[in-house]
Amino acid sequence: MEPILKNEIRLDLILKILKDNWKKYIAVMFITGVISSLLIICVPRYYVVRVTLAPEYGEQSPISGILGSAASFLNLGVGATGGSNAIVPEFYPDIIKSTDFLVGLMSAPVKSQDGEFSGTYAQYLTSREKAPWWWVVIAKVKKIFAKEKEPFNASKDYKVNPFALTRAEYDIIKSISASIECNVDEKTGVISISANAQDPLVAAIMANNVKEELQEFLTKYRTEKIKNELKHATELCDAAYADYVKAQDVYARFMDKHQALTRQSYKVEETRLSGEMQMALEIYNALYQQKLYSESELQKRTPAFTTLQNATVPVIPTGPKRMVTVLIMTILSFFVYTVILVAVNDSKFRGKE
Questions:
Q1: Could you write out the DSSP letters of every residue in 237-259?
Q2: What is the pTM assigned to this prediction?
């Protein structure tokens, strides 16, 4: 008999091996199926919720252009607020994986679908999320040899310091990072945010929280500078208006008091007070234009997002696919056992040559 793998694959010999060992095949596939079932049952079910957004990029409004030109003409220096956004959608996945962003999610309020839990997301991860038994065993073994870490401070008033995380906080940050994901379609610009949890309601809440946190982060980033400029312009405008009202009041009282007098010194004083009042009015008008421009810029720079897919509490778990996993492992055992039998019989045939 020729070796099975000498020059070419002998399908007839392989079929003969399968026929002679069919009982062993049944035993191997049955055992594999049982073991796979026992293992996959230990893996907790999880749910994935996806939210999709379409960013709307604002364009310069006509009033913004008019006020910008006026501000430039008056040399107020407010044109510096222009320019494109430095954070493009391609950077959004990096934003939600940053420590500062993840720390903000630790205190996000969540509750379980069965109503038995209500608290922060960090408390949920440390008290409600389950792990397969082998991970529990590994964790206990590590705990024997590793230094005991400080427990997570779950008090309501405790503030996590992103600059100096404890070991417990770092582990929670890693869990949060693994449970959320953000993808951006380069062609359409559509942002897809997903969150997974072992509780369907928690998954839906966290998907919505990540969406809102990202929107808040981007809004703050894009508008923080112009908000400061608007605050400063408002303060200057209010002060200029007070100066104008004061100058107007001084001029009015002077005119009331010296209305019937015709001395040249009074006329000079009247001209001076009138000029001061007019100058105060011009300054106020200029600062008021700056304030209007800053308000227009703030509106233009505030990002808007259209929600294409809202968070919905899932009914069916996303995974693990238990039946599919058992089937794949059983089929895989068939091929692996076939390779072993072919290799063993091939070596026997080679020995007979």
A1: HHHHHHHHHHHHHHHHHHHHHST
A2: 0.73
